[in-house]
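Lab notes, practical 5.
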Amino acid sequence: MSRVAEAFQAAAQQRRAVLVGYVPAGFPSVDGAIEAATAMAAAGADIVEIGLPYSDPLMDGPVIQEATRRALAGGTRVADVLRTVEAVAGAGVPTLVMTYWNPVDHYGVAAFARDLAAAGGSGMITPDLTPEEAGPWLEAAAQRGLDPVFLVAPSSPAQRIKLITSACGGFVYAASLMGTTGTRETVGSQAAGLVRRVRQHTSLPVAVGLGVRDRQQAAEVAGFADAVIVGSAFVSRLLDAPDLPTGVSAVRDLAASLAAGVREPAVA
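Output from the prediction step:
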């Protein structure tokens, strides 16, 4: 059983959802991202996603785009991403890389899987990689014991969901709405329906992302999903902070609040 699967099993035994937090490597610095991610985990995040900064982040909204722009301007490289993964995984939390496909393809698929596993990583989320083109990654992931996580969207028809979930490991990432990442005033109305549709095709846990910003929304999503993914809300805490200690403290407080939310799910 992978560390990701163990996290979901432990949460299920506690009758609650899993909290997944995201921070991009290299923002506000490499060490700052490590500090923020480990604080997030210590405050209650069950799984951490480390973003690999990319120059053309089609899925990301303005908050994460700005953070990754600063990370790239600061010279963040794949080696820094792997160092971040190693530090966060070493703190005792399952850690995945969230990345667009081009940097992995450029690095070398087998080499990236090897180095990610060596760093203690648990898997990779690839928003722009389709299962039809994922053969080399699926093979490398299987060889290294990594979970390949793919995304389904509200627009995905049944046959597409079946194909995507058959390629997934660890969990299925359900994008709760169409569009880019970013916090929303309300959770997308399509999210619960999408989770129900996904569960018709897989026994894997279903995690909902794109939009959750606070404890109330986390509780709402925890009422119908196996995991709540939060990214922009964490990153905005770091962007808005006047210095790193203040930003890390804000990330820690938000993680604790969200962790409480996934433990008191609203009725779906």
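Observations recorded by the TA: The two ends are 29 Å apart (CA to CA). Residues 178-184 have pLDDT under 50 and may be disordered.
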